[in-house]
Specification:
mainly alpha; two-stranded antiparallel ribbon; globular
Length: 250
Protein backbone atom coordinates (compact mmCIF):
# COMPACT_ATOMS: atom_id res chain seq x y z
CA UNK A 1 0.00 0.00 0.00
CA UNK A 2 1.26 3.47 -0.90
CA UNK A 3 2.34 5.72 1.94
CA UNK A 4 -0.66 8.02 2.68
CA UNK A 5 1.68 10.73 4.01
CA UNK A 6 3.78 10.94 0.84
CA UNK A 7 1.10 13.02 -0.91
CA UNK A 8 1.85 15.93 1.45
CA UNK A 9 5.58 16.07 0.73
CA UNK A 10 6.84 19.44 -0.48
CA UNK A 11 9.23 18.99 -3.38
CA UNK A 12 11.64 21.50 -4.88
CA UNK A 13 11.02 22.42 -8.51
CA UNK A 14 13.61 25.16 -9.03
CA UNK A 15 16.21 26.85 -6.83
CA UNK A 16 15.91 30.63 -6.98
CA UNK A 17 19.03 31.38 -4.95
CA UNK A 18 20.20 31.79 -1.38
CA UNK A 19 19.56 34.49 1.21
CA UNK A 20 21.76 34.63 4.33
CA UNK A 21 22.82 31.05 3.68
CA UNK A 22 19.25 29.78 3.31
CA UNK A 23 18.12 28.27 0.02
CA UNK A 24 15.11 29.93 -1.64
CA UNK A 25 13.31 27.47 -3.89
CA UNK A 26 10.17 27.33 -6.00
CA UNK A 27 8.21 24.29 -4.76
CA UNK A 28 5.08 22.37 -5.68
CA UNK A 29 3.33 24.24 -2.86
CA UNK A 30 4.22 27.60 -4.41
CA UNK A 31 3.17 26.29 -7.82
CA UNK A 32 -0.33 25.36 -6.66
CA UNK A 33 -0.73 28.65 -4.81
CA UNK A 34 0.20 30.39 -8.05
CA UNK A 35 -2.31 28.28 -9.98
CA UNK A 36 -5.00 29.23 -7.46
CA UNK A 37 -4.25 32.95 -7.86
CA UNK A 38 -4.30 32.66 -11.67
CA UNK A 39 -7.53 30.65 -11.56
CA UNK A 40 -9.28 33.18 -9.32
CA UNK A 41 -8.08 36.06 -11.50
CA UNK A 42 -9.29 34.39 -14.69
CA UNK A 43 -12.68 33.69 -13.12
CA UNK A 44 -13.31 37.13 -11.65
CA UNK A 45 -11.70 39.28 -14.34
CA UNK A 46 -12.42 37.15 -17.38
CA UNK A 47 -16.01 36.34 -16.44
CA UNK A 48 -16.91 39.96 -15.75
CA UNK A 49 -14.89 41.67 -18.50
CA UNK A 50 -17.82 41.48 -20.92
CA UNK A 51 -20.82 41.64 -18.63
CA UNK A 52 -24.19 40.94 -20.19
CA UNK A 53 -27.76 41.35 -19.01
CA UNK A 54 -28.25 37.60 -19.37
CA UNK A 55 -25.11 36.19 -17.70
CA UNK A 56 -23.33 33.12 -18.95
CA UNK A 57 -22.15 30.31 -16.72
CA UNK A 58 -18.81 31.93 -15.85
CA UNK A 59 -20.39 35.31 -15.09
CA UNK A 60 -23.10 33.63 -13.02
CA UNK A 61 -20.47 31.78 -10.98
CA UNK A 62 -18.51 34.99 -10.40
CA UNK A 63 -21.63 36.90 -9.34
CA UNK A 64 -22.78 34.10 -7.04
CA UNK A 65 -19.34 34.06 -5.38
CA UNK A 66 -19.50 37.82 -4.90
CA UNK A 67 -23.00 37.77 -3.39
CA UNK A 68 -22.24 34.75 -1.22
CA UNK A 69 -19.31 36.47 0.48
CA UNK A 70 -21.11 39.84 0.68
CA UNK A 71 -24.10 38.22 2.42
CA UNK A 72 -21.74 36.40 4.77
CA UNK A 73 -20.12 39.68 5.83
CA UNK A 74 -23.44 41.51 6.25
CA UNK A 75 -24.86 38.74 8.46
CA UNK A 76 -21.84 38.59 10.77
CA UNK A 77 -20.28 42.07 10.81
CA UNK A 78 -23.10 44.28 9.53
CA UNK A 79 -22.98 46.76 6.64
CA UNK A 80 -19.83 48.36 8.11
CA UNK A 81 -18.01 45.10 7.55
CA UNK A 82 -18.25 45.47 3.78
CA UNK A 83 -15.11 47.60 3.83
CA UNK A 84 -13.30 44.31 4.47
CA UNK A 85 -14.99 42.63 1.49
CA UNK A 86 -11.84 42.45 -0.72
CA UNK A 87 -9.91 40.88 2.16
CA UNK A 88 -12.54 38.28 3.08
CA UNK A 89 -13.36 37.49 -0.55
CA UNK A 90 -9.69 36.93 -1.37
CA UNK A 91 -9.22 34.60 1.59
CA UNK A 92 -12.39 32.62 0.83
CA UNK A 93 -11.62 32.13 -2.85
CA UNK A 94 -7.94 31.37 -2.18
CA UNK A 95 -8.69 28.66 0.38
CA UNK A 96 -11.53 27.25 -1.75
CA UNK A 97 -9.35 26.97 -4.86
CA UNK A 98 -6.49 25.42 -2.90
CA UNK A 99 -8.86 22.86 -1.36
CA UNK A 100 -10.37 21.98 -4.73
CA UNK A 101 -6.96 21.71 -6.41
CA UNK A 102 -6.04 19.19 -3.76
CA UNK A 103 -8.90 16.97 -4.94
CA UNK A 104 -7.26 16.37 -8.35
CA UNK A 105 -6.56 12.59 -8.32
CA UNK A 106 -3.27 12.62 -10.25
CA UNK A 107 -0.76 15.38 -9.70
CA UNK A 108 -2.89 17.31 -7.22
CA UNK A 109 -1.39 18.82 -4.08
CA UNK A 110 -3.27 20.04 -1.01
CA UNK A 111 -1.53 23.22 0.10
CA UNK A 112 -3.96 23.71 3.00
CA UNK A 113 -2.83 20.41 4.52
CA UNK A 114 0.31 22.22 5.70
CA UNK A 115 0.04 24.04 9.01
CA UNK A 116 2.56 26.69 7.92
CA UNK A 117 0.17 27.87 5.20
CA UNK A 118 -3.00 27.86 7.32
CA UNK A 119 -1.11 29.47 10.22
CA UNK A 120 0.11 32.26 7.93
CA UNK A 121 -3.46 32.96 6.80
CA UNK A 122 -4.76 32.83 10.38
CA UNK A 123 -2.04 35.22 11.58
CA UNK A 124 -2.85 37.57 8.71
CA UNK A 125 -6.46 37.71 9.95
CA UNK A 126 -5.33 38.05 13.57
CA UNK A 127 -3.06 41.04 12.95
CA UNK A 128 -5.58 42.64 10.57
CA UNK A 129 -8.12 42.61 13.41
CA UNK A 130 -5.63 44.18 15.85
CA UNK A 131 -4.36 46.86 13.46
CA UNK A 132 -7.84 47.78 12.23
CA UNK A 133 -9.28 47.83 15.75
CA UNK A 134 -6.53 50.07 17.12
CA UNK A 135 -6.64 52.39 14.09
CA UNK A 136 -10.39 52.94 14.28
CA UNK A 137 -10.97 52.80 18.06
CA UNK A 138 -7.65 53.46 19.73
CA UNK A 139 -7.63 52.48 23.40
CA UNK A 140 -11.35 51.71 23.23
CA UNK A 141 -10.43 48.56 21.31
CA UNK A 142 -9.39 47.10 24.67
CA UNK A 143 -13.09 47.02 25.61
CA UNK A 144 -13.06 43.78 23.65
CA UNK A 145 -11.45 42.15 26.71
CA UNK A 146 -13.78 43.77 29.24
CA UNK A 147 -17.40 43.32 28.15
CA UNK A 148 -19.87 45.81 29.59
CA UNK A 149 -22.12 44.76 32.45
CA UNK A 150 -19.56 42.48 34.13
CA UNK A 151 -19.38 42.82 37.97
CA UNK A 152 -16.11 44.37 39.14
CA UNK A 153 -15.19 41.48 41.44
CA UNK A 154 -14.99 38.98 38.55
CA UNK A 155 -13.70 41.44 35.94
CA UNK A 156 -10.00 40.42 36.31
CA UNK A 157 -10.94 36.77 35.72
CA UNK A 158 -13.06 37.66 32.68
CA UNK A 159 -10.27 39.82 31.24
CA UNK A 160 -7.78 36.94 31.61
CA UNK A 161 -10.18 34.53 29.92
CA UNK A 162 -10.91 36.96 27.09
CA UNK A 163 -7.21 37.66 26.49
CA UNK A 164 -6.38 33.95 26.41
CA UNK A 165 -9.30 33.31 24.08
CA UNK A 166 -8.18 36.12 21.77
CA UNK A 167 -4.56 34.96 21.66
CA UNK A 168 -5.61 31.37 20.90
CA UNK A 169 -7.68 32.39 17.87
CA UNK A 170 -4.90 31.87 15.31
CA UNK A 171 -4.28 28.39 16.69
CA UNK A 172 -7.87 27.18 16.38
CA UNK A 173 -8.37 29.09 13.13
CA UNK A 174 -5.38 27.42 11.44
CA UNK A 175 -5.53 23.94 12.98
CA UNK A 176 -9.21 23.47 12.05
CA UNK A 177 -8.51 23.86 8.32
CA UNK A 178 -5.19 22.02 8.41
CA UNK A 179 -6.49 19.03 10.41
CA UNK A 180 -9.65 18.54 8.35
CA UNK A 181 -7.83 18.59 5.02
CA UNK A 182 -5.00 16.38 6.30
CA UNK A 183 -7.26 13.75 7.88
CA UNK A 184 -9.65 13.61 4.93
CA UNK A 185 -6.91 13.08 2.35
CA UNK A 186 -5.19 10.43 4.48
CA UNK A 187 -8.50 8.54 4.80
CA UNK A 188 -9.09 8.79 1.06
CA UNK A 189 -5.57 7.54 0.30
CA UNK A 190 -5.93 4.59 2.68
CA UNK A 191 -9.19 3.38 1.12
CA UNK A 192 -7.81 3.87 -2.40
CA UNK A 193 -4.74 1.87 -1.37
CA UNK A 194 -6.94 -1.03 -0.26
CA UNK A 195 -8.62 -1.04 -3.68
CA UNK A 196 -5.28 -1.28 -5.48
CA UNK A 197 -3.89 -3.87 -3.08
CA UNK A 198 -6.92 -6.16 -3.27
CA UNK A 199 -7.28 -5.71 -7.02
CA UNK A 200 -3.75 -7.07 -7.48
CA UNK A 201 -4.79 -10.41 -5.92
CA UNK A 202 -6.87 -11.52 -8.88
CA UNK A 203 -10.59 -12.27 -9.29
CA UNK A 204 -11.16 -12.86 -5.60
CA UNK A 205 -9.42 -9.60 -4.80
CA UNK A 206 -11.61 -7.74 -7.29
CA UNK A 207 -14.70 -8.89 -5.43
CA UNK A 208 -13.18 -7.90 -2.10
CA UNK A 209 -12.21 -4.50 -3.52
CA UNK A 210 -15.83 -3.54 -4.15
CA UNK A 211 -16.42 -2.38 -0.58
CA UNK A 212 -13.25 -0.24 -0.31
CA UNK A 213 -14.04 1.20 -3.75
CA UNK A 214 -17.50 2.21 -2.56
CA UNK A 215 -15.95 3.83 0.52
CA UNK A 216 -13.43 5.64 -1.71
CA UNK A 217 -16.20 7.10 -3.85
CA UNK A 218 -18.18 8.11 -0.76
CA UNK A 219 -15.16 9.69 0.93
CA UNK A 220 -14.31 11.56 -2.29
CA UNK A 221 -17.80 13.06 -2.39
CA UNK A 222 -17.52 13.93 1.31
CA UNK A 223 -14.10 15.53 0.75
CA UNK A 224 -15.51 17.75 -2.00
CA UNK A 225 -18.14 18.93 0.47
CA UNK A 226 -15.52 19.40 3.21
CA UNK A 227 -13.30 21.37 0.81
CA UNK A 228 -16.09 23.92 0.37
CA UNK A 229 -17.24 23.87 4.00
CA UNK A 230 -13.74 24.46 5.36
CA UNK A 231 -13.27 27.46 3.07
CA UNK A 232 -16.64 28.75 4.28
CA UNK A 233 -15.81 28.14 7.96
CA UNK A 234 -12.42 29.86 7.60
CA UNK A 235 -14.07 32.86 5.92
CA UNK A 236 -16.99 33.19 8.33
CA UNK A 237 -14.64 32.99 11.34
CA UNK A 238 -12.64 35.75 9.68
CA UNK A 239 -15.84 37.83 9.50
CA UNK A 240 -16.65 37.13 13.15
CA UNK A 241 -13.16 38.18 14.23
CA UNK A 242 -13.31 41.32 12.06
CA UNK A 243 -16.60 42.18 13.74
CA UNK A 244 -14.60 42.62 16.96
CA UNK A 245 -12.45 45.23 15.20
CA UNK A 246 -15.59 47.04 14.06
CA UNK A 247 -17.64 46.72 17.24
CA UNK A 248 -15.31 46.09 20.20
CA UNK A 249 -17.03 45.37 23.46
CA UNK A 250 -20.35 44.35 21.86
Amino acid sequence: MADPIHQFQITKIYTLGTVAGHEIAFTNSALFMGIAVVGISLLMIGATAKRSLVPGRAQTLAELSYEFVADMIRSTAGPEGLRFFPFVFSIFMFVLFLNMLGMIPLGGFTVTSHIVVTAALALLVFFTVIVSGVMHHGVKFLKLFAPSGIPVYILPLIVCIEVMSFISRPISHSVRLFANMLAGHITLKVFAGFVVMLGALGVGGWIGAVLPLAFTVAVTALELLVAFLQAYVFAILTCIYLNDAIHPGH
